[in-house]
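Data card: per-record layout.
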Amino acid sequence: MREHRSPETLWKTECTCAAARRAARALTHFYDLVLAPTGLKIPQLICLMEIAEAGEIAQWQLSRDNAVATETLSRRLTLGSKKGLLKVRRGPQRGERIYSLTPQGQETLQKALPYWMRAQERLAKALGDASLEHLIAVLDRLTLSAHTAEQIRTANSNGQSQRASHDKAASDSASDTQKRAA
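The structure for this 182-residue chain is written out next.
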């Protein structure tokens, strides 16, 4: 049976978000250390890998696919463009930006991949291949669950505002009817 814990200490052991953020910070620090000789940090490398895989990709899609705020992604992409790693062009939609790798970006990515592989291998050795695969699957499900929960929250919020508008309209209509009857 679980011992009773106060809400002040419960979050340290049972808050999914706190545990995921703690793990994400530790992993980011680890990958950044391994990637240090390349001059890239793991968020930059992930962007390069995603853009290379797509050939070219819209900023909004890169943001959505990686669950990154567009403002945060804008800073990363601007930095990559300033370093000469990324090429940007306007997309067909108003304000849309499409990114692709420059030859320098492709070369930087190729030089960084062995370091990334080294980090991957170290984690696989520490966790075991099966545990690492299971962890990635759980994290993917966690990401999907968070997106689903957000969609439900948004739908509920929209439904509440629609209900509130409907209730107000009904109330206004009833009030108008009462005024006319009086």
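Known properties of this structure: The chain has seven helices and three strands. Helices lie at 7-14, 16-35, 42-54, 59-66, 70-82, 103-127, 129-181.

See the next section for split statistics.
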